[in-house]
């Protein structure tokens, strides 16, 4: 029943540091709005993860392959991230005074429900996450042999993922007292730009899937470098 859980815990820890829109927004939210705000944002993102896991777990392999390889989903998700990045950047550019007020305010009003929804939607439009969870389920089936092994494997991944996120939120919140309003302002703008870049990359992957794959294939991996060095 508990076979493969060590791998699951390690995988969940590494997954928590996967660079993407949610990663940067979680850190930024925790720094600017505090622990509770970061927690609700993360719970929203985790809810999207659970939905993706359920879709991947209960769907047939034929449906999974169709969803995984459908460029239309990448185009839609990329367009949403691009729109979000642009809107977020424009709003941030106009909100420096608001950031200063929030930074020095004793109590900052937080829309926790809105932060939960923000985390959910930002993760849910990234269909690459679904493909990642499909791969995780395949890994779980390969590493576990017991009847409920896959369930415990996925539960361990999610639990480790969430606990690591809590640590990130806590550490980010500790940094708030050392952050100036101008630094927070620049951080929010850079997060918006990074989300925009991820959206463009996703959109290009959907529009030009073959060209993107060829470009990735041209990037030499570590084994190629070692092989070239030994020649």
Could you characterize the architecture of this molecule?
The chain is 83% helix and 0% strand. The protein has helices spanning 5-15, 21-33, 35-58, 61-69, 71-93, 96-104, 112-124, 128-143, 149-175, 181-207, 209-218, 222-230. Helix 3 runs parallel beside helix 7 (112-124) and helix 10 (181-207) crosses helix 11 (209-218). The protein has one domain. The chain is built from twelve helices and no strands. The chain is mainly α and 231 residues long. InterPro entries: LeuE-type. One of its GO terms (molecular function) is amino acid transmembrane transporter activity.
Largest sheet: none
Strand content: under 5%
User: How many domains would you count in the coordinates?
Assistant: 1
Q: Compute the number of helices.
A: 12
The succession of helices and strands, N to C, reads: HHHHHHHHHHHH
Helix content: over 70%
Radius of gyration: 20 Å
Q: Mean pLDDT score, rounded? A: 75
> How many strands?
0
Report the end-to-end length measured between terminal Cα atoms: 47 Å
Name the overall outline. Answer: globular
Structural class: mainly alpha
The poorly predicted ranges are: 221-231
Keywords: Cell membrane, Membrane, Transmembrane, Transmembrane helix
GO molecular function: amino acid transmembrane transporter activity
Membrane topology: Multi-pass membrane protein
Protein name: LysE family translocator
